[in-house]
Amino acid sequence: MKINLAGRVQNTHLPYQSALLPLLEAIINAIHAIEDLGTNEGRIDIYLERDETQLFFEETQIPPIKNIVVEDNGIGFTADNFKSFQTSDSSFKRTKGAKGIGRFVWLKAFKKVQVDSQFQENGRYWTRIFDFVLSENGFENVQLKEIETTEPKTRIKLQQFKEEYQRAFPKTIDAVALRIIEHYLIYFISEACPLITIHDSENGQTMILNALYEKGISPHLLREKFQAKYETFEIINVKVYLSRRQNRSEIHLCANYRDVLTEKLGKWLPDVDQITDEDGKRFVFIAYISSQYLDYHVNAERTDFLLEDEEGFWVSKSDIIRSAINHIKNNYLKHYLAKIQQTKQQRIDSYIKTTAPQYRHLLKYQAASLSEIPLKSLDDGSIDLELYKRSAKIELELKEKGQKFLSRPLTDIKDLASYKAEYNKYIEQENDLGKAKLAQYIAHRKIILTLLSNSLERGDDGKYSLEESVHGLIFPLRQTSDDIDYEKHNLWIIDEKLAYHKYLASDLPLNQLGIVDVDSLERPDLIIFDSHFALVEDSTPFSSVVIVEFKRPLRKNYPKEENPIEQVCGYIEKIQGGTVTNKAGRPIPVNRNTPFYCYIICDITEKIKRHARVASLTPMPSGTYKGYFGYIPPYNAYIEILSYDKLLEDAKKRNQILFDKLNLPC
């Protein structure tokens, strides 16, 4: 059968992230060649030849690798081995786990491969030289010559790295060395591992991988076994203190002594990348899993396993990984993870008790879930988000449980005692959640008052905030009560009862309010139309109208024509002269007896004091620097002038008992 080499290579799967695989295939070929020769002094030398011609790289950058050479002193390209090399999907080395396709990944990532092999066969010595390329038959410049006595030696040169794979290849000799050790760890563990050395053309650096393994990995290695359904697997647990390309722990599924599939362990154990040893030194945990079951089910390219991931009688990849995770968590890493868990628990408890008591119910109902929060997410910003997610989950589950109870026919209840116990548990959770939501709202008020206090202070530029910043904190500008949720306004800062209203408009012209027909472009900062609390017809006039006007904190200059008292009275005149519409759009005359409540929020300057005296307003008992109040009969208007200090002070006093109950800091 004739093989289309170009098509075979094209159909060979090699992801860019597997750019190291061609080198790994060359190394395993060398290992097999040394095993076939039967020598105890096997050597493999790897040469990284970098592209020094790419001068556009910065001085601090390492030139990319252009060619890779792998030399070994194994059996070489004998007649049988060369015949196997020429045969697609050869089964010649099936007993070693070879699939007979490793050479195709060479041409997937490199443009050309040069082979020069010296070997002994039938008592004579030979050299076989050829180029392996994407041609019709795949071989060029084939030579076979008899030579004088020589030591066996095979040199494989992978030439002209293709750019897309070159970019994904590890950049440093350290990273390449560590990846090779990880991939062939089982060989390094065995006493028969050849001496493997890497030579880097960059500064002539040399690294012996066996010494690296003995120093950095061997002292921290433990073999164990675990079960996944009916299959037994071996797991090699390794502490790695070496400098890794990425500081992350991993699980490696292996087949035929080679790494095939890598999974980040942090997906299942979120704190595993934070573990430290008994001396507080950080290390990376690597687990290598192997078995005959994995050997049998590896795919041809050795990039994955042909295992179903659906539930069934067979053992899936998910079954293997889950069982391995449980084994690791409850055995090798148990002590290290317990230390992190204790640290997390202390941090979560402290945050909830001192800063966010609204999440206290999570300690009771979500203890297991809290333990899954990664340690790195426990700074004050991230921890609140993590706790909020879990609180929202409880609320959703509780709503579903409540609907279940409410919709369940009483005739379906067979065991009254168990039903009552389940119902009482639901009620207890509901009460705890209600307390938590109340605590959350109280904590929100504390934050809002802190923001208000900060906005009243002088900025770094020596100026005070504009009135819009205070206005926006209490109610968003150019919005109405139809546009935002109830929880997004903070009218309670001014007066608790303002939260209950029929309609509110913020910084909108009077002629755009919709609910009132007034031909004016003037824009009250806040205008609030109140409804009666009793059930009445929609044609009844409003119970009251509230107007709020903000002035810039510590503003001293008020033009002669700008009198905030006259300003709010002007709004009243226009509203009283207009009409109000009901939901059906029918006009409702504004009743002259409708009371108006006006709040002017500003700092009390001499100009404001003068305006207050002219309007016959009374200083508040706490002094004229805090505010004024009074009634203006022609407008049926009660007016309060409040300083920002008094606004903040009164809001704090009204809420302090709530803050105290939650032990919120003053």
* CATH architectural name of the largest domain: 2-Layer Sandwich
The DSSP helix count reads 19
Radius of gyration: 39 Å
Give the strand tally: 23
Class of secondary structure makeup: alpha+beta
Approximate helicity band: 25-40%
The chain-level mean pLDDT equals 79
* Low confidence ranges: 94-99, 532-540
Estimate nothing, just give the exact number of structural domains.
4
Compute the separation of the termini in Å: 86 Å
CATH class call of the largest domain: Alpha Beta
- Strand share of the residues? 15-25%
The strand line-up of the biggest sheet is: 5-4-3-6-2-1-7-8
Q: In the CATH scheme, what's the topology name of the largest domain?
A: Heat Shock Protein 90
Query: Any idea what the CATH superfamily of the largest domain is called?
Result: Histidine kinase-like ATPase, C-terminal domain
Describe the structure.
The protein is α+β, with helices and mostly antiparallel strands and 666 residues long. The chain folds into 4 domains: 1-214, Histidine kinase-like ATPase, C-terminal domain (Heat Shock Protein 90), CATH 3.30.565; 217-332, Ribosomal Protein S5, domain 2; 337-445, no CATH class; 467-651, no CATH class. Helices cover 35% and strands 22% of the residues. It has 19 helices and 23 strands. An 8-stranded mixed sheet has the order 5-4-3-6-2-1-7-8. Helix 6 (173-183) crosses helix 8, helix 14 runs antiparallel to helix 15 and helix 15 packs antiparallel against helix 19 (644-661). The termini are far apart. 29% of the residues are buried.
